[in-house]
């Protein structure tokens, strides 16, 4: 057995353990991360604040707190009524599959990465160059290698250049959601991949995590947590901010353009480019 085959077996075994735990959690509240229609129902009865999640691909992105196809809606948890990130995929989630799988039509076609375990394990630091300043974070390459490898691939393809962070939440959960070239919350890279690093996952300020539409639906969208946030361990944490958090908190302080607690940020949240070293 080659080292690459062994790596794949280890990744698959770890992933299956994570999915078993997720199945238990989702049995109690299986609607909390998949159905964006819940968000509309919750809005009618006035329960909680809807929140977008970063996701990957086509009609919706699946990569960080919950991302939903509408850039201003997302479901709440069945148990607590608090907002959660959610995404609406245009293809079925495939949590049993390991690696990058074709998904929706890409909003910006840059192809699909071919996973290289050795390259994926190498640590890196990324800097998001917002129009208002720089935010730098360390990628958790050993804990979420498929996620960090995908992000690096997309960065090198210029996928995130001149894009807008399309969603800000200021009630219930505290995240800035980015990663959709269309700026609507419905765009992605045309592929999806499995969750990682979920065991015991928490979301303190400075966490960078993926939005999703359920297990195995990560794509290009991600969210930046700017204030300690309580979320179920369903969103892959894959980065930790090391400097520049004030850039995001300033955007958050500006509030949502509609005056509510969930929607497009009022202040510019433009990503000019991303660099990696």
Care to describe what's here?
The protein has 277 residues and is an alpha+beta fold. The protein has one domain: Beta Barrel (Cyclophilin). 22% of the residues lie in helices and 18% in strands. Strands 4-12-2-3-10-8-9-6-5-11 form a 10-stranded antiparallel β-sheet.
Briefly characterize the structure.
The chain has 277 residues and is α+β, with helices and mostly antiparallel strands.
Order of helices and strands: HHEHEEHEEEEEEEHEE
Structure class: alpha+beta
Q: Could you tell me the mean pLDDT?
A: 78
CATH class category: Mainly Beta
Largest sheet: 10 strands, antiparallel
Annotation keywords:
22% helix, 5 helices, alpha+beta, two-stranded antiparallel ribbon, 12 strands, 18% strand
Outline the secondary-structure elements.
Layout: H1 3-28, H2 37-45, E1 101-102, H3 117-120, E2 125-130, E3 133-139, H4 145-156, E4 163-164, E5 167-169, E6 175-178, E7 191-192, E8 207-210, E9 222-225, E10 237-243, H5 245-253, E11 262-263, E12 270-276
Antiparallel strand pairs: 1-7, 2-3, 2-12, 3-10, 4-12, 5-6, 5-11, 6-9, 8-9, 8-10
